[in-house]
Specification:
Layout: E1 2-7, E2 13-18, H1 20-30, E3 38-42, E4 45-50, E5 52-53, E6 63-67, E7 70-73
Antiparallel strand pairs: 1-2, 1-3, 3-4, 5-7, 6-7
Length: 81
Amino acid sequence: MATYTINYHTGVTEEFEGTLEGAKQSALEGISYTQEHVSIEQDGEQVTIARWVGVEADEDDEVLVHVGDGFYQNWSDELGE
């Protein structure tokens, strides 16, 4: 198991012990309307990021979750970035 830092880029971070998939689920549960990206880091390096998009999603967008009038894109590692 690894330790991940979930960074909500609002001054709030959360430590998560487990798998990357578990960290993603924990981050998803903590997402709120902040208009900030959410990243997961390990040893100070970004592992993946869910980018905030402040407009309604198009049918071609890869949506992780809708929040307010915008959405978070799927995790970057799942998008092949």
